[in-house]
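quick one, two chains, predict together pls
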Amino acid sequence: MTSDNDLDQIVEQYLSRLSVALGDVRHERRQQLMDSITDHIREARSTLSVTSEVALRDILDRVGRPEDIAAEALDDRTASSVSQKTWFRRAAVIAVVAMAAAGVTIGAVIFTRSDNVTPAATASTTTTIAPPITVPNVVGAPLARAESQLTAERLIFTVSYLCSRSSVPPGTVMSQSPTPGTRTRMGSDVVLTAKTHQTCH
Amino acid sequence: MYGFELTRALSTAGGLVTSEGTVYPLLTRIRQDGLVDTFWVSSPQGPPRRYYRLTQDGRLALDTFRVQWQQFRDTVDTILKGSDE
């Protein structure tokens, strides 16, 4: 049986190997990469139902060889001579940011947060894009439904929370822009205003 | 999407990246180029997560790439088809 301590140590070892591999990368960038990958490993570990050395090794395996990560970082550095392959990979990352249908999770996280912040707190979520789309009508719908409708249409949306004296339940969409039925350009934002959960003064 | 989701999505797509870890240098790069920006969102567990979203420039880059990619693919397809016959 491997203790959590041992597992932490395996992660530490991996990270110090990475740090050495990134030796030629500019300090600030190296720090950024180390932080991102440390976060990534923590996230990956938190999704495990059973923590075992095998599962952890698998996570680190997926993160990849430190040398590969360093090679990518250094390849990036010579921006003027970016190879086509690098450009394709970069475009793929851009496309994933734009299109992966992770809107539901993102929305959920952000809604929870906004509910606990100040009234009229603004949160934004980014989902996905697609060719010409007709904006659905989500006014009067609870945010969760608005979210799934918009996500289904692969639209990007932003939510602002506002105080309202109206009798609708908190979390109801009060207005939207552009209005329902509008044909949107690919990747454009739908801005929603929803009633806040906070008590208004 | 936040970093972890993104890298998982990309590595599941297959063939594009060597490993999940190699996505991060790309992300830093496109962020420096102003194609994506990031914001922090508190997480239900653990420290806040860095979320990524496309900027206006990022959308333009994606549109451009779409066109370029299509041309590239069509050209290669034509050549390959020709060599079949």
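The mean pLDDT of chain A is 74.
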